[in-house]
Amino acid sequence: MTDPIDPHTPPDPIDFSPLDPARDAARWDRAIAGVVARATATRRPGVMRELSRSGVVVFAVAAAAAAAMWFGRRPGAAAATTRDPVVEWTRWASGEDVDPLSLIDSGGVR
Amino acid sequence: MILAALSDADPEPDPTTGDLVRRARRGEVAAMELLARRHLRAAYVVALAVLRRPADAEDVAQEAFVVALEKLDACDPDRFSGWLVRIVRTRALNAADKRRIREPGEAEPDASPAPAVPLGDRGLRERLVAALDGLTRVQREVVLLHDLESWTHAEIAEALGLTENNCRQHLFAARRALRARLGDAP
């Protein structure tokens, strides 16, 4: 009596086609479409993340600009940058070193 | 002459999986679909090797593939298959753990009919699932990837982290065991 299975000869391939989900082509196509649709839907928030990440930069720049404008307009800053012609001419008259251009700019107008 | 030249001209070659991964990373939907067409069944096979229930394996394979497409940036495009196999296997093992908790004592493979399979195949399908149950997980992965998915030994070895020789041995042992269990069919 011989062994029905030869230990040296590779057995034939197994036909697994009854387990193949792609046998029902229409159903398999729907499964693939579903996977791709879900993946693209969830990849979109990734795009949104990128946008929001660049949005953070835009916000930071805007905040810095707003802060600079606010500090530039506060009363002290205005006083520091607006030249009083009387003060300027008085300083010039008393022999202080005054920028002639600032004298011209002030123009004696109050 | 011109016609001969035209007929000899090579058609546009199929993109490699690596190319598809790179295109899919840029959000190209057609590339994602081609990737799914090429690799979703392999994902199912790996999930089936772990879960031994076709319906559960389909669910896990699809979920794992969605995750893989979401995380494509983390993948070496030229090693997509092995990377996908690891994702599927991890998720399938997690699903198996949950199933053990949900259904204590439940170890039998699913024998319920799947709507995708014609009714005449039901008996054969049940026998195949029962026969697979007698193999180790790696044997199931190897024999299913080779005989259902038509992967080469080199591809299987790379994806599963085996040597090619090891892969051949697993295939040999798996087929022998399955033949012994199935008799003359399929």
Low-confidence stretches of chain B are 109-119
Globally, the shape of chain B reads globular
Return the domain count of chain A. Answer: 2
Largest β sheet strand count, sense and barrel closure of chain B: none
The whole-angstrom Rg of chain B is 19 Å
Characterize the biggest β-sheet of chain A.
none
The amount of beta strand of chain A, in percent, is under 5%
Write a brief caption for the model.
The complex is a heterodimer of chains A (110) and B (186). By secondary structure, chain A is mainly α. Chain A has two domains: 1-73, no CATH class; 75-110, no CATH class.
Word description of this protein:
- The complex is a heterodimer of chains A (110) and B (186).
- With 110 residues, chain A is an all-alpha fold.
- Chain A folds into two domains: 1-73, no CATH class; 75-110, no CATH class.
- Chain A is built from four helices and no strands.
- Chain A has helices at residues 25-73, 75-81, 85-93, 100-106.
- By secondary structure, chain B is mainly α.
- Chain B is 69% helix and 0% strand.
- Chain B has nine helices and no strands.
- Chain B has helices spanning 2-8, 17-25, 29-51, 54-70, 80-102, 122-132, 137-147, 153-160, 164-182.
- In chain B, helix 3 (29-51) crosses helix 5 (80-102), helix 3 crosses helix 7 and helix 4 (54-70) packs across helix 5 (80-102).
- Chain B starts with a helix and ends with a helix.
- The model of chain B is unreliable at 109-119 (pLDDT under 50).
Question: What's the layout of helices and strands?
Answer:
The complex is a heterodimer of chains A (110) and B (186).
Chain A: H1 25-73, H2 75-81, H3 85-93, H4 100-106
Chain B: H1 2-8, H2 17-25, H3 29-51, H4 54-70, H5 80-102, H6 122-132, H7 137-147, H8 153-160, H9 164-182
Helix pairs in contact in B: 2-3, 3-4, 3-5, 3-7, 4-5, 5-8, 6-9, 7-9, 8-9
Please name the defining characteristics of this protein:
heterodimer, A: 110 residues, mainly alpha, B: mainly alpha
